[in-house]
Write a structure and sequence with these properties.
Elements lengths: L4 H66 L10 E6 L2 E9 L4 E2 L4 E4 L2 E4 L1 H13 L4 H15 L43 H7 L3 E2 L9 E2 L9 H5 L7 H9 L8 H5 L2 H6 L6 E2 L4 E10 L2 E12 L2 E9 L4
Parallel strand pairs: 3-6, 7-8
Antiparallel strand pairs: 1-2, 2-9, 4-5, 9-10, 10-11
């Protein structure tokens, strides 16, 4: 029996609808496969780029060990960028003095779970804020908040901020009670507004040690002359410190030679605040591999001639 014409039309529409649905499903599956292939390729490229970065780190540790062994950590090496072609890309790496900065953790002293205020470290921090143009009162409140963030006691510094300042509904977190791991943690501390953070960030770091950290006079670049001015017991302008750095001999100063300079004597810079060698080294690596990129920062520390990895970060520093 022949079906009516209208039933033939319905059957044809049903078949066309099924074909259309299957076509859409097939297109979706193919797109998902293509996306998975691209994602896998990208992951492999990023992984390879990271392996190249880790290789550069291993080479850097060997180079730093050689610098330490030969006693040539005065500063001529700092800031040089080396570029190496690799299959499918390029590795760019440079080593700078990881201690050419104010160590934020120096505002406390002591050891794990027993950190307390360091008057010497706080004084140095206040000197830095003054050189950078922050007001005396602002500097004192920032220092107090920083001490309260790191120290392990519940007592609030004058103008500082303990747990109760961060436990409200808008923030809902507590003070660290531990050394800062990165300078970017400042943004979580009361008083360190974006403007304050932007002013301080080029001059500060978070080294894995408490107490005052000496500054290597031979690795401070001219744009960070405020770090030299920070060491002065008598007021010293950043411009004067920049002039001092510009006169630095090619081979660097010994600690004794630097202390004997008239400008240093006039500014009353104490010898315990500076050094002529480096202990921390920061390796900055950027790898391009195909369309992938890997950026890493490694902090290396010299422990009696043994070069140890203290910290590693993937991605650009903030």
């Amino acid at each position: 029996m022949t079906p009516p014409p209208e039933e033939k039309g319905v059957a044809l529409l049903t078949v066309l609808l099924m074909v259309a649905v299957m076509s859409v499903m097939a297109a979706g599956v193919l797109e998902e496969i293509r996306f998975s292939i691209r994602r896998t390729a990208n992951a492999e490229a990023v992984g390879q780029a990271r392996w190249y970065a880790l290789g550069a780190e291993a080479v850097a540790r060997t180079q730093v060990a050689r610098l330490v062994a030969t006693g040539t950590t005065s500063g001529a090496w700092s800031g040089r960028i080396a570029r190496y072609p690799v299959e499918g890309g390029e590795v760019a790496a440079g080593i700078v003095d990881g201690g050419a900065c104010f160590n934020l953790n120096s505002v406390v002293e002591g050891s794990y779970e027993a950190y307390r205020r360091s008057d010497a470290g706080v004084a140095q921090f206040l000197s830095l804020t003054r050189v950078l143009g922050l007001g005396q009162r602002d500097g004192e409140m920032l220092a107090a908040a920083l001490v309260d963030w790191i120290d392990t006691d519940p007592l609030r510094e004058a103008g500082g901020a303990e747990d109760e300042a961060y436990g409200g509904p808008e923030s809902g977190y507590l003070t660290s009670g531990a050394l800062l791991a990165e300078a970017s943690e400042l943004r979580a501390i009361r008083g360190f507004t974006p403007a304050v953070y932007a002013r301080l960030r080029p001059f500060v770091c978070a080294l894995p040690q408490a107490g005052v950290t000496p500054i290597n006079i031979n690795t401070v670049p001219p744009e960070k002359a405020a770090l030299i001015a920070m060491l002065a017991d008598r007021p010293m302008a950043a411009a004067a410190a920049r002039t001092l750095i510009a006169a630095r001999p090619a081979g660097g100063w010994t600690r004794e030679e630097f202390l004997a300079l008239p400008a240093v004597t006039e500014a009353a810079i104490g010898g315990d605040k500076l050094t002529d060698t480096s202990r921390y080294f920061r390796l900055e690596t950027e790898v391009t591999y195909g369309d992938a990129e890997a950026i890493s920062t490694a902090l290396l520390v010299n422990e009696g001639g043994r070069i140890r990895l203290a910290a590693r970060r993937w991605g650009p520093e903030e």
